[in-house]
Specification:
Layout (H helix, E strand, L loop, with lengths): L8 E6 L5 H11 L7 E7 L4 E7 L2 H4 L2 H5 L5 E7 L14 E5 L2 E11 L2 H10 L9 H11 L5 H9 L4 E8 L4 E5 L8 E5 L2 E5 L2 H6 L3 E5 L4 E6 L2 E6 L7 E2 L1 H6 L5 E2 L2 E2 H15 L6 E4 L5 H11 L7 E3 L12 H6 L5 E3 L1 H4 L3 E6 L8 H10 L4 E6 L21 H4 L2 H8 L3 E4 L2 H8 L6 E2 L1 H4 L26
Parallel strand pairs: 14-23, 17-20, 20-21, 21-22
Antiparallel strand pairs: 1-4, 1-10, 2-3, 2-4, 5-6, 6-7, 7-8, 8-12, 9-10, 9-11, 12-13, 15-16, 18-19
Helix pairs in contact: 4-5, 5-6, 9-10, 9-16
Length: 470
């Protein structure tokens, strides 16, 4: 059971004859799984840039009145979860800054590992900050960079940024997509009748009737304006696409690097069945993140697949706090087992990962109380022993159960009859990509760039801020 939150979702559209705010609203719906803390849309009409943000889900942040005030021919949108900076209205995106040669709005997916250093440098240049995010650091770095055009400034800033970032940037008359040189976070380009779109995942294009063209390459800047689409490329010495886009983050109906995520996850389940066979009566996937992998395990093993663990799919962000009695129910608020189906059965329980190990024992306990005779845990990823610094709010190393316990100790801790983690080789084979273009640091500790091993996502909160940006 994962205990992290997803990467942010970003979207951009250039379409002079469309209601771009409404298109962006529905695209953000498709990307809601990537962030549920806040949502925002910025639009431009050739003269000015407008922005509206709100806390919570897309449906909580917007209504008809808000969308009606966002006219224009260009829009960018953002679903946020916090990797740098707390969850607060000030940190909602897109952020809007004014500078030379004008205003820009920016949405960011990722994490900049040298943000504190850059922020201090910008502060000494006279730039002020009204958020505690690395996204504002990126925007100010672009504004402060030399160059005659926005693309010149962005390319210069890219040479200073270290870490993971995919960006959608909007000026009053242009849409710009940026993917960091490591390519940790995805970004794709699509075509719409009379326009162009950018999105974290291809599923967002499907929802608004856009046609997928290609992925934005690592180190690439894509400029979209009245002249069409133009591409610029910064050198990329090493690629490091996050493996958890395949395991968990992206939707199964998205395509990344030419691989449909559904097929990759089904292959992970099949590989698990080959590596860790067991005599059992049914395969149960933890919904929804391991549903596809459980199909692969069942198909490969010949064991029946059952939906014996149901998920309340409407459990999401809410501003209503549960009382103590409801809070103590814990995981039962999210999952409910079917006793009549589980009674006396030997289960293979498939999940995407075990991070801290706090939720998994509760789910196994639910299944046992519902009558399961045996629970054999199968995980679609190798043990996570190292934290992520590239856009995933995972855990510190001492909180990661696999960095503190052996597999047999974890098995005993979670209360499973057996435990099997997919091997690194099996995982790489399932995603059908060369190992050297993937970031596997959470398994291996081999980070694509040097990192500070115990960084705090709230580090920028403690740095001095002013009320206005330069």
């Amino acid at each position: 059971m994962h205990s992290w939150r997803e990467s942010c979702g970003i979207f951009g559209v250039y379409a002079p004859d469309e209601d771009v705010a409404r298109l962006t609203f529905f695209a953000l719906f498709a990307l809601q799984h990537r962030g549920q803390e806040s949502a925002g849309i910025a639009t431009a009409d050739g003269k000015r840039v407008r922005v509206h943000t709100g806390m919570g889900l897309v449906s909580q942040a917007f209504d008809e009145d808000a969308l009606g005030r966002l006219g224009g021919s260009i829009a960018i949108g953002h679903n946020r979860y916090s990797t740098t900076g707390s969850s607060s209205p000030n940190n909602a995106q897109p952020i809007l800054l004014n500078g030379h040669p004008g205003a820009i709005a920016l949405g960011h997916n990722g994490n900049i590992v040298n943000a504190a250093y850059l922020r201090q440098e910008l502060a000494e240049l006279g730039y002020g900050f009204h958020t505690s995010t690395d996204s504002e650091v990126i925007a100010d770095l672009i504004l402060s960079s030399p160059g005659q055009t926005w693309v010149d400034k962005i390319r210069y800033a890219m040479r200073r940024l270290q870490g993971a970032y995919s960006l959608v940037i909007m000026t009053k008359d242009a849409l710009i997509g940026v993917r960091g040189s490591l390519g940790v976070r995805p970004l794709c380009l699509g075509a719409l009748d009379g326009g162009w779109v950018l999105a974290s995942e291809s599923c967002a294009l499907d929802h608004i009737g856009a046609h997928f063209l290609r992925e934005v390459e690592p180190g690439e800047v894509v400029l979209i304006d009245a002249g069409g689409v133009e591409s610029f490329k910064e050198p990329s010495s090493r690629q490091a696409l996050c493996i958890f886009e395949y395991i968990y983050f992206a939707r199964p109906d998205s395509v990344i690097n030419g691989r449909l995520l559904y097929q990759a996850r089904e292959a992970m389940g099949g590989a698990l069945a080959r590596e860790y066979p067991v005599e059992a009566d049914m395969v149960v996937g933890v919904p929804d993140s391991a549903t596809v992998a459980s199909i692969g395990y069942a198909r490969q093993s010949g064991i029946d697949l059952s939906e014996a663990l149901l998920k309340n799919r409407y459990v999401g962000r809410t501003f209503i706090e549960p009382d103590q009695r409801i809070r103590e129910l814990g995981v039962k608020l999210k999952f409910n087992p079917l006793p009549g189906v589980l009674e006396g059965k030997r289960l293979v329980l498939v999940d995407d990962s075990i991070v801290r190990g706090t939720t998994t024992p509760r789910v196994i306990g639910l299944l046992r109380r519902a009558g399961a005779a045996e629970v054999h845990m199968r995980i679609c990823a190798p043990p996570i022993r190292y934290p992520c610094f590239f856009g995933v709010d995972m855990a510190t190393r001492w909180e990661l159960i696999a960095s503190q316990k052996s597999v047999s100790e974890i098995r005993d801790f979670i209360g499973a009859d057996s435990l099997g983690y997919l091997s690194l080789e099996g995982l790489i084979e399932a995603v059908t990509l060369p190992r050297d273009i993937l970031c596997l640091a959470c398994f291996t500790g081999d980070y694509p760039i040097p990192v500070q091993l115990e960084m705090d996502k709230l580090a920028l909160e403690t740095m001095p801020a002013t009320q206005e940006s330069a």
